[in-house]
Amino acid sequence: MAQQVPSDTELIERFSDPGRRNIAFKDIVEKYQKRLYKVVKRLVNDHDDTEDVLQNTFIKAWQKLEGFRGESALSTWLHRIAMNEALNHLNSARVKKTQTIDNQIHQPIGGQGFSSDEGDELVLKLEKAINLLPPRQKAVFCLRYYDEVAYEEMAKILNLSEGALKATYHHAVKKIEQHLTAH
């Protein structure tokens, strides 16, 4: 019989008990790791970098969970930490120029393959255009386009207004369209 997944409230209550803290956190990681991996992977593209970002995310979550006030859902709070870590990674990678656009292009963002060469070419063009976006635009575009996150939820995750997010998404779409038209 499958074990029932504890609610976020229950996990947070368990975490506040020093005797149950480690098990509660392990359950939190198991509950959210796959979902956060998928979101972060779309932004940073590389598996090892994604694992590093997730590790940093869960380290910060461990350090700050005692102070979690519950003003947002636990999932939103964890997404916010993961997005901030991913954006920090992208910004530092951009500054250090450790990744080249050519390397990023060959690592699919969406993990969705097409059977035709034409489809593959279109996916590569789209991924190249997405990888050319500034980190915040890339984050907003991926959350909205691939994960279909509502602007209200995205505002909580990225700590931005819905209007700013809509504008950012619009600018990202325009840049992608321009790139696809030019190439």
Low-confidence stretches at least 5 residues in length (pLDDT < 50)?
97-115
| Overall 3D form | elongated
CATH architecture of the largest domain: Orthogonal Bundle
What are the secondary-structure elements, in order, as H or E? Answer: HHHHHHHHH
- Look up the CATH topology of the largest domain: Rna Polymerase Sigma Factor, Chain: A
Major β-sheet, in short? none
- Radius of gyration based on Cα positions: 18 Å
Beta-strand percentage range: under 5%
What is the class of the largest domain in the CATH system?
Answer: Mainly Alpha
Helix content: over 70%
Number of helices in the DSSP assignment? 9
Account of the protein in words:
The protein is mainly α and 183 residues long. It has 2 domains: 7-99, RNA polymerase sigma factor, region 2, helix turn helix motif (Rna Polymerase Sigma Factor, Chain: A, Orthogonal Bundle), CATH 1.10.1740; 108-183, Winged helix-like DNA-binding domain superfamily/Winged helix DNA-binding domain (Arc Repressor Mutant, subunit A). It has helices at 8-16, 21-44, 47-64, 74-96, 101-105, 117-131, 135-145, 151-158, 162-182. Helix 2 (21-44) runs antiparallel to helix 3 (47-64), helix 2 (21-44) crosses helix 4 (74-96) and helix 3 crosses helix 4. The radius of gyration is 18 Å and the shape is elongated. Mean pLDDT is 85; it is low at 97-115.
